[in-house]
Structure formats: structure tokens, C-alpha cells
Amino acid sequence: MEKQFKIFVDFDGTITKEDIGELMFLKFGDEQKAKEIVNDWINEKINARQSWLLLCKTIQNLNIEEFDEFIFKTEIDESFKKFVEYCKVNNYELRVLSDGLDYYIKKILTKENLSELEVYSNKLTFDENGNLIPLFPYTDEECNRCANCKRNHVLNFSGEEEFSIYIGDGYSDICPAQYCDFIFAKKSLLKYCEINRITYFPYSNFNDIIIKLEELKNKKKLKKRYQALLKRREIFIQG
User: Fold this and answer.
1) CA Rg, the chain, in Å?
2) pLDDT tens column, 201-222
3) Is residue 239 pLDDT above 70, yes or no?
4) Confidence (pLDDT) at 232
5) What is the signed CA dihedral for 166, 233, 231, 148, rounded to 10 degrees?
6) Tens digits of per-residue pLDDT, 39-60?
């Protein structure tokens, strides 16, 4: 029987080369305030929703044309399109989970002819003065790490008959990755996995991930990560 992988991939700094959700506030907002807000979020002084609301207030009277030009210049990892095709050929479900904003995510994916990808993220609207209004359709009151609860998406879209895979790089990836059978990590997600002795695969680009997935696919027996099984059961017991 063919192994079925359910794949969840972060956007900022994973699909894209840089973290657009951070850079947009450094470029168009108050750089010092933005850094302080992000540090408060990482140090859990504020939750993710509060951080987005505060960050958006640092940008006043945004010039939408300049913002779109900034977004258009964003580059994605050159190997990601190959990875998308690999998932299609193997019938692996691929979903983008981002704690970023749909406005720039959709524009970047459309530019790269990847608009068919299923994306779950926070939303961004504007008022008549060009001020940013973030919306959070996938929030979870019990989760402070993400405004868009990535963990819930992982649990909703994967079952015990399949193997769940998480690909990420940052602070908002720490929670969902722990519920997945296989983790591909770099940067701060990798550091977290190392410190907390969580099994992971390091990667530098999506070609590395394709090679490892081929190895996993061809194994006669593939075991789910025990820590992930326990964490999933814990959530299901809580209801």
C-alpha cells in the first residue's frame, strides 16, 4: 500500500527567501516599534493577535502601489515549484499554513503561477485612509503563539492512516510541528527541536526535502513519531 503524506508548509522564510511579514513593517512602519513588538510576542508578553494589531498600527497611510511593488519584488525558493510538482505526481496533499497575511501571500503565489495552492492564513484589509486592518478567521483562544492556529489545521487535515509532515523555519512553526510525524526544520525551528530533543530533518531547500521523502516513501516500514502521537491523543481526549 502506498504511503500517504499530508504535507504542511510555512510561507514566510520557508517558501519565500525572506520573512515578508516582518520586512513590511520594517520598511513601511516604525522599525524600532516593530522590533519591540516582535520581541514582546516571542517573549510571550503579548499573544500573536495582539502583536499583529500593534504592528499594523505602526504603518500609517500606506501607499498601496508602493506596497504592491515591494511584494512583487519578493523571491521564493527556486526549488519550491519543483516540490509542488513532486507532490502532485505522488498525490501528496500540500497545504500552506502561515501566520502571515493573505494580501501578500496571494499576490506572491499568483506571480509565481502557484495560485492553486490551498492556503490558510490571517487576512488583511484596508480602511479608507490606507490603514491596515488584520482579521483572524482561524484563531484559537487557547493558543498564544499563532493568530492563525496552525496546529488546528494539522489536526483537521491529517488522520492516523497518513503520515503528517511539517516544513518550517520560525517561531510560529514550533507548535504545529510538534503534532507532525516528520519535521523539516531550519533556523529557529531547528534550534527549538535541538534544545527540546525533538526528532527532525535539517534542510536548506526543497530539493533536500524531496530526497528525504523519497527515502521515507521507499522504506518497508515507517513509524509515526511517538511524541507527536501522544500530543495528538492529548488534544483528542480534551475534545
Assistant:
1) 18
2) 999 999 999 999 999 999 999 9
3) no
4) 93
5) 60
6) 998 888 999 999 999 999 999 8
Name the pairing type of β-strands 163-168 and 5-9: parallel
3-class DSSP string for the chain:
CCCCEEEEECCCCCCECCCHHHHHHHHHCCHHHHHHHHHHHHCCCCCHHHHHHHHHHCCCCCCHHHHHHHHHCCCECCCHHHHHHHHHHCCCEEEEEEEEEHHHHHHHHHHCCCCCCEEEEEEEEECCCCCEEEECCCCCCCCCCCCCCHHHHHHHHCCCCCEEEEEECCHHHHHHHCCCCEEEECHHHHHHHHHCCCCCEECCCHHHHHHHHHHHHCCCCCCCCHHHHHHHHHHHHHC
What gap in Å lies between CA 62 and CA 194, rounded to an integer?
40
Q: How many CB atoms lie within 10 A of CB 76?
A: 18
State which CATH number among 3.50.50.60, 3.40.50.1000, 3.40.50.2000, 3.40.50.2300 fits the domain covering 5-17+76-238. Answer: 3.40.50.1000
